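Backbone shape codes:
===
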Amino acid sequence: MKGRFITIEGPDGSGKTTQINLLKDYLEKEGYHVHLTREPGGTVISEKIRNLILSPENHDMCNMTEALLYAASRAQHVEQKIKPLLEQGEVVICDRFVDSSVVYQGVARNLGIDNIEAINSFATAGLVPDITFLLYIDAEEGIKRKSEQQTLDRLEGEKIEFHQTVCDGYKILAKKHADRIQFIDASKNIEDIHKEVLKLLETVL
């Protein structure tokens, strides 16, 4: 791959969207061609799967179905959008990727980290980000922020214990993949977080 693949992770309400937009603006000023995308979603088919996963109407969806739908959405996303852009030498910034499935389904849904990583390695043909920024925030603060911004989707509306387990999962994953995942305290102010992201980004650009 000639391009660079950057992913932004974090619990709900950690400020990913703000930092993604700041990073895009910076990279474009530096002369890079930057493409923003998100998961689940990013393509027409993947967005349809996103709506299915996140709709509060589907409250009886079983955990394995949820995990496989995420992987299916991701397979389409990688094949149709992410991989072609990287092959063209572009920079792709993705709001969530495999790490989200590992913590939300592997840890919080108790399906197992190794199982979810295996499913998604198959779905993505082994694609791994060049760098991942993990914006970490306390679960209660994150959901408080999120609920003030919008109506919560099916996963955001889970009990606080679920979100606390997600946060624990991110800590586990950050240690497991310390060479790729950069842990950032998302309780800092926006500009300080942005500066930290740029400093860490030097390792891959």
Remarks:
- The domain at 4-137+148-201 is CATH 3.40.50.300 (Rossmann fold).
- Helices lie at 16-29, 44-54, 63-87, 98-108, 113-123, 139-149, 160-176, 190-201.
- Strands lie at 4-9, 34-38, 91-95, 131-136, 181-185.
